Amino acid sequence: MASVHISSYFFLLLPLLLGFPFFSNSQPYKNITRDSSLTAQNNNNDSYWPSQSGDFAFGFLQFGSDRFLLAIWFNKIPEKTVVWSANRDGLAPGGSRVHLTNHGQFVLNDPEGRPIWSANLGDNAGSVSYAAMLDSGNFILAGSDSQVLWQSFDYSTDTILPTQIMKADLISSYSETNYSKGRFLFSMTGEGNLVSAYPSIIPMRRTATLYWKSDTQGSGFQLVFNLSGSIYISEGNGGRVVKVLTNNTPSTKDFYHRALLEYDGVFRQYVYPKNGNDTSPSPWRKAWSQVSNSIPPNICVTINDGIGSGACGFNSYCSLGDNQRPVCSCPHGYERIDPNDEAKGCKPSFVPQSCGNNSSSDFEFVSIEYSDWPSSDYEAFSEVNEDWCRRVCLEDCFCAAVVFRGNNCWKKRFPLSFGRVDLEFTGKALIKVRKDNSTFKLDHPIKKVVKDKTLIVIGSILLGAFGFLFATFFIAYQFYIKRRKLGMVEMPPVLGLNLRIFSYEELNKATAGFKEQLGSGASATVYKGIVDDCVDNNLVAVKKLNNVVEEGEQEFKAEVRAIAGTNHKNLVQLLGFCNEEPHRMLVCEYMKNGSLADFLFGSSKPNWYQRIQVVLGTARGLCYLHEECDTQIIHCDIKPQNILLDDSLAARISDFGLAKLLNKNQTRTMTAIRGTKGYVAPEWFRSLPITTKVDVYSFGILLLEIVCCRKSFEAEAEKEDEMVLADWAYDCFKERKVELLVKNDEEAKEDMKKVERFVMIAIWCIQEEPSFRPTMTKVIQMLEGAIQVSTPPDPSSFITSIM
């Protein structure tokens, strides 16, 4: 952390460091006199007291049909963002009233006059002359001499604002929409460390796990959020500021600021433009967070023992979602206790195995890869195999699940706790569930056998259908066995997707002994081939893996999985494959015009109109992969060499060898760095979870290359500052010299509005903070002019860390 001198901050911080509120009698604010009150009424937008400027409001916010939160919120933005609340653990019913009484008390009563909450005035009870909602977001109760007797700034809930000193522990909200007290604390220790803590026992809130600490021991004892938007630790005695946590944040003149402990236990600072013209994906932008430095990157793994259920509820498991927030899921065969609250955990949708006459044959296992429930063990075994591990759990009526890794087996008991998916964990969890045809399922109560002719007829029909399906399966199985004997290796279940299976001899003949090479890479070579009755012109491209090793096999299976189920005009179509050891090949459509790299950087460059169509086609193909496929696909290697051009020069995305497939409950994944230098998003190098935004980043670089008709890095550039295209493009945009990017392209220079729009879109796509990058749907809307493109910031301007 950086140190700063007293001269830089003293006069700005003096009122903060002395503990006084940042206002005076000369500062305009509206007095709320004695006997003033507000009543919680349905659909009543006037149940609040605004600050002088109208930036903040104090009053009632309605939740549901007839429940109200007494709160302070930002009042000039569409999102009524709450910064403080009085009755967060018990919403008030309609008709409740907050009243500044004639006796100087400030109390919230229900419709029958019973107190729900009151301001803790202590010895000052009865001395309050008036209240005021200040433009700082602070609500005060003051005496006749304007001395502040009580202020909301002293009783923070989960948020602090500029000009505020954190005097009370922050307690996170329960969820994004539930403002009641949640699972995490944020406080300052006596030694000067900031800590985020996980209170394992609710509602006792005993701290079991320090989720994060700032390592600022000895630096001071006050956390200050100053008027310039910086958050730091001070000595609090009128002396110097010791440690600075944030700097270079946007001005509080132009942006609203807030810092809060969010429901996932992370302390983050956000800014929001006051002009209201921001069209970025999320107007509340993250300016800083503890995540950027020393916080453990995976909350699911960090909180893994003690009393309690973990980051998610009992019998559920945790995986990382957007912005590293925990996503809680139920295993197959389980359902949420509360459909509207994923943190409450899951319950079995079947009757668990009893220790009576239940047969173990009534149960089976659901496998969850990379998952563990580390705190539910009651027996462990070593030097065993997976079948043995399954069997020992089936025979044990107390066993709810087993975790198997290597040659080790752990039995788990109910309720399962601290469940998580960890891609660094090489084992799997096997959850014991009752078979689908069991008569003990909760939603299928035991039924007596009824001798009814109608049931007998239906049973006969079903039995006949079953016999037919069994015969079909038996024939298919014999065919499969025969192919295995010929050297076929087991593949993922993609054979039902109308793919043709080629033998090695067929493809050797089709390519004339792999004679005509179309291209090559680190792991594969592509050859031109002729195959009868495969496509209209019989021409195909045969991609042959060079090295048949374990990684090559995984890459081959990944590519088949990725493109076998896709169907889009901007993707190269997979026609079939060969999987005979040691030969693994893919057979795809033949693209007459080769790759975009050849077309873009060759001697004959495409015209401006053709380049626009390539941009749109590539964007639509990526949007399909990210948002329209049954299985979301992250391509991971978008670059000109992997964009092929068909007969009409339409873009076709190809080469899915590095693609990552996400499960339906996933939005991100952890994986080793993959892709091509120059197109790889920054989060790959920070060991952060990977989302579809890595493809958006690569598309941004590609878009600049297409606009400028030059490579992303050119060592032979005329000027040194033009070597890196992304940096040069932003400099040109910032200096309003975008025309320099297309100085030798007359067609593009005649369409400068579109050139500038495309450059702005590209800069949004290459933002170093993934959450700032738009989705591909929004990219398409911006490219087509359906929505306005706002001015992008410097791509690295919001990447900050604890200094």
UniProtKB/TrEMBL annotation:
<dbReference type="GO" id="GO:0004674">
    <property type="term" value="F:protein serine/threonine kinase activity"/>
</dbReference>
<keyword id="KW-0808">Transferase</keyword>
<comment type="similarity">
    <text>Belongs to the protein kinase superfamily. Ser/Thr protein kinase family.</text>
</comment>
<keyword id="KW-0418">Kinase</keyword>
<dbReference type="InterPro" id="IPR000719">
    <property type="entry name" value="Prot_kinase_dom"/>
</dbReference>
<keyword id="KW-0067">ATP-binding</keyword>
<dbReference type="InterPro" id="IPR017441">
    <property type="entry name" value="Protein_kinase_ATP_BS"/>
</dbReference>
<keyword id="KW-1133">Transmembrane helix</keyword>
<keyword id="KW-0812">Transmembrane</keyword>
<keyword id="KW-0325">Glycoprotein</keyword>
<dbReference type="InterPro" id="IPR011009">
    <property type="entry name" value="Kinase-like_dom_sf"/>
</dbReference>
<dbReference type="Pfam" id="PF00069">
    <property type="entry name" value="Pkinase"/>
</dbReference>
<dbReference type="InterPro" id="IPR001480">
    <property type="entry name" value="Bulb-type_lectin_dom"/>
</dbReference>
<keyword id="KW-1015">Disulfide bond</keyword>
<dbReference type="GO" id="GO:0016020">
    <property type="term" value="C:membrane"/>
</dbReference>
<dbReference type="InterPro" id="IPR024171">
    <property type="entry name" value="SRK-like_kinase"/>
</dbReference>
<dbReference type="Pfam" id="PF01453">
    <property type="entry name" value="B_lectin"/>
</dbReference>
<feature type="signal peptide">
    <location>
        <begin position="1"/>
        <end position="19"/>
    </location>
</feature>
<keyword id="KW-0430">Lectin</keyword>
<keyword id="KW-0675">Receptor</keyword>
<feature type="domain" description="Bulb-type lectin">
    <location>
        <begin position="34"/>
        <end position="154"/>
    </location>
</feature>
<dbReference type="GO" id="GO:0030246">
    <property type="term" value="F:carbohydrate binding"/>
</dbReference>
<keyword id="KW-0472">Membrane</keyword>
<keyword id="KW-0723">Serine/threonine-protein kinase</keyword>
<feature type="domain" description="Protein kinase">
    <location>
        <begin position="512"/>
        <end position="787"/>
    </location>
</feature>
<feature type="transmembrane region" description="Helical">
    <location>
        <begin position="455"/>
        <end position="481"/>
    </location>
</feature>
<keyword id="KW-0245">EGF-like domain</keyword>
<dbReference type="InterPro" id="IPR036426">
    <property type="entry name" value="Bulb-type_lectin_dom_sf"/>
</dbReference>
<protein>
    <recommendedName>
        <fullName>Receptor-like serine/threonine-protein kinase</fullName>
        <ecNumber>2.7.11.1</ecNumber>
    </recommendedName>
</protein>
<keyword id="KW-0732">Signal</keyword>
<keyword id="KW-0547">Nucleotide-binding</keyword>
<feature type="binding site">
    <location>
        <position position="544"/>
    </location>
    <ligand>
        <name>ATP</name>
    </ligand>
</feature>
<dbReference type="GO" id="GO:0005524">
    <property type="term" value="F:ATP binding"/>
</dbReference>
<dbReference type="InterPro" id="IPR051343">
    <property type="entry name" value="G-type_lectin_kinases/EP1-like"/>
</dbReference>
<dbReference type="InterPro" id="IPR008271">
    <property type="entry name" value="Ser/Thr_kinase_AS"/>
</dbReference>
